[in-house]
Amino acid sequence: MHDYIIRAATPDDIDGARVVMLDAVYRDFGTGYVPHWHADIIDPVPYYVTPARHTLLVAVVGSDGTVAGTAALDARGPAHPPNPRWLAERFPSGETAQLRRVYVRPEHRRRGLARRLVDGLLEFARADGGYRSVYLHTYPDSPGALGLWRTMGKVLCDERADLPGGGNGVVHFEIPFA
Predict the structure, then answer these.
(1) Following DSSP, what letter does each residue of 99-141 receive, concatenated?
(2) Which residues contact 128 (CB under 8 A, 6 or more apart)?
(3) For a Cys staple, 24 with which of 4, 103, 111, 165, CB 3.0–4.6 Å?
(4) 0.90 exceeded by the pTM?
(5) What whole-number distance in Å separates Cα of residue 164 and Cα of residue 170?
(6) 111 and 84 Cβ atoms separated by less than 8 Å
């Protein structure tokens, strides 16, 4: 069993974080790298490290510093399109903390890392003082994601059932934020 440290990503963590994120889009989602969707993965610094109201957290193995998981937050609400207009209106940019890139390497799953990473993101958002809500979307094929998010938040829209033709198959959540 490993000891893990949850912290803001340092410059030394960026390559390891990128590997965790790219592995997820290839292995878990089967999409591979799609520039329009994944530019933040290739260069996470201007998306999550440089902006003051954004963050990239990593879970690192305490014994060797290997990045085992990632979680990011930014102040961009969901865009319309591709998301339903009412979601974009409910979660405006600037006031919404959007959780992104919550991924844990398979060999480190089932140890509470995703929850600890999300707790860190929520602490960051509370400390910021400018966020009024927390939003995220997930794909049902992401291992463990729906189970985690259902224990932490409320489903607002399950495109598979709520939109004609199933939309993009995305499930949208709001996480309580007090």
Answers:
(1) EEEEEE-GGG-SSSHHHHHHHHHHHHHHHH----EEEEEE-TT
(2) 53, 97
(3) 103
(4) yes
(5) 13
(6) no
- Beta bridge partners of residue 74, listed in sequence order: 98
Tokens of 80: 């319309």
Between strands 171-175 and 154-158, the pairing is antiparallel
97 vs 124: CA distance, rounded Å: 10
The size of the chain, in residues, is 178
Bridging pattern class, strands 96-104 and 133-138: parallel
Per the CB < 8 A criterion, the answer to whether 127 and 87 are in contact is no
Query: How far apart are the C-alpha atoms of 94 and 114, rounded to whole Å?
Result: 25
Amino acid at the residue 135:
Y
Are 53 and 93 contacting, i.e. CB atoms less than 8 angstroms apart? no
Q: Is residue 97 a contact partner of residue 134, using CB atoms and an 8 Å limit?
A: yes
- How many angstroms separate the CA atoms of 24 and 89, rounded? 29
